[in-house]
DNA sequence: TCTTATGGTAAACAATCGTTCACCTATATG
DNA sequence: CATATAGGTGAACGATTGTTTACCATAAGA
């Protein structure tokens, strides 16, 4: 529902906010789009606002870029959803399952826009330095390699384990001698790959 | 070298940036300071710029707040120094020892302004889920309690260990059976307390 | 073919922007 | 006392702000 030109403008606004810290003026946008009239920008902005991509307040530089959930996009930060439960089918990030929105700096995410957070339960990964209560940053993907720490869906519950593939045989390996490997007959599916760990002490 | 009134204005600008995402206009600042003339604000801004607290570019809302090191202060983020080495005496955070500035969201720091980061070397804390290469968030303090994970200076080198005090006897305990406890005769001093751990995988 | 949606030019508009000027009022310091 | 400094009033200035209007060009659909 958004045209190529509108997307172009939105991209520029986001880039400008990230780079300079403040949103651009209409004139600056016109210059960036190589357009001589401010009205051309005004029409694009009107369309973007109608579709809920931006919010305007009429004052100088008074443009806020909203993400797909209507939250403000700010310089250097991204809001990342902390999921309570991970649903079995369909898209992983559903508002229903979002417990909280956590701000993370862009440098953490390296440009990825689709990551989510998950709070670790249990002690099955203490050998890999992942403790109960830790937040893991997860990049949704099904393409994982041996040695990756992954988030898998096991018996309708999200679990963090190490992924291993030997001779075409794929299994999940807990990093704790108390637990046993999980083999394919247990019905599990990889949902994503852990790309970061965050722990708050005290 | 900064007056009370100037500090008041600086505080408002920072608060406004954090709250709304964009810096205030001169008129908005005048209203906030309950002042009728924009010139009053202009003079305060001139003084703040002279002292290096802000930077102006003349355009609408073109004010950047700079931190004590001249870096831009942005909404929701703080720049935290990653230290290469930890000096024995004097203030811990010296520009000389700063390897890099890392952006962390305010929610991580819980309002603390004096924390720093340290990259962990070695495997002496794997039992506590702290691996080689992890970044630890450190709050500088000498007041620590049994069980706290601390940063200590041992033989002129920074080390991360667990702090234990039993019957008035204080020692450092590595969380790895390969290493032995470190007792007072080894000459060590607590520099701070670990309040967070960050790991980037992949 | 007619109509609609999208994007553009050019000009004008009032409102707001930051800056500057002359002048005033305390307060502290010599 | 004289003087410098910090902070303030009020007005004016030109530049920039976002918005609006009238008109044009192109492409897609009915």
List keywords for this structure.
homodimer, 202 residues, alpha+beta, Arc Repressor Mutant, subunit A, Umud Fragment, subunit A, 20% helix, 32% strand, DNA-binding
Strand order of the largest sheet of chain A: 4-3-5-6-10-7-8-9
Mean pLDDT across every amino acid position of chain A: 84
The name CATH uses for the topology of the largest domain in chain A is: Umud Fragment, subunit A
Derived structural class of chain A: alpha+beta
Low-confidence stretches of chain A: 87-96
Shape of chain A: elongated
CATH level-1 class of the largest domain in chain A: Mainly Beta
Number of H- or I-type helical stretches of chain A: 4
What oligomeric state do these chains adopt?
homodimer
- Largest sheet: number of strands, sense, barrel closure of chain A: 8 strands, mixed
């Amino acid at each position: 529902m958004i045209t190529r030109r509108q997307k172009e403008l939105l991209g520029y606004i986001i880039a400008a906010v990230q780079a300079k810290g403040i949103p651009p003026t209409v004139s600056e946008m016109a210059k960036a789009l190589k357009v001589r009239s401010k009205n051309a920008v005004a029409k694009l902005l009107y369309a973007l606002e109608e579709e809920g991509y931006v919010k305007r307040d009429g004052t100088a530089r008074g443009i806020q870029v909203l993400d797909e959930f209507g939250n403000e996009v700010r310089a250097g930060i991204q809001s990342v959803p902390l999921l309570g439960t991970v649903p079995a089918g369909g898209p992983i990030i559903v508002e229903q399952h979002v417990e909280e929105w956590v701000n993370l700096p862009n440098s953490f995410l390296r440009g990825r826009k689709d990551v989510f957070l998950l709070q670790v339960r249990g002690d099955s990964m203490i050998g890999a330095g992942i403790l109960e209560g830790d937040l893991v940053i997860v990049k949704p993907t099904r393409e994982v390699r041996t040695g990756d720490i992954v988030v898998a869906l096991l018996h309708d519950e999200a679990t963090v384990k190490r992924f291993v593939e030997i001779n075409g045989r794929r299994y999940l390996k807990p990093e704790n001698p108390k637990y046993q490997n999980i083999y394919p007959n247990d019905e599990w599916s990889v949902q994503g790959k852990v790309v970061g760990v965050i722990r708050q002490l005290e």
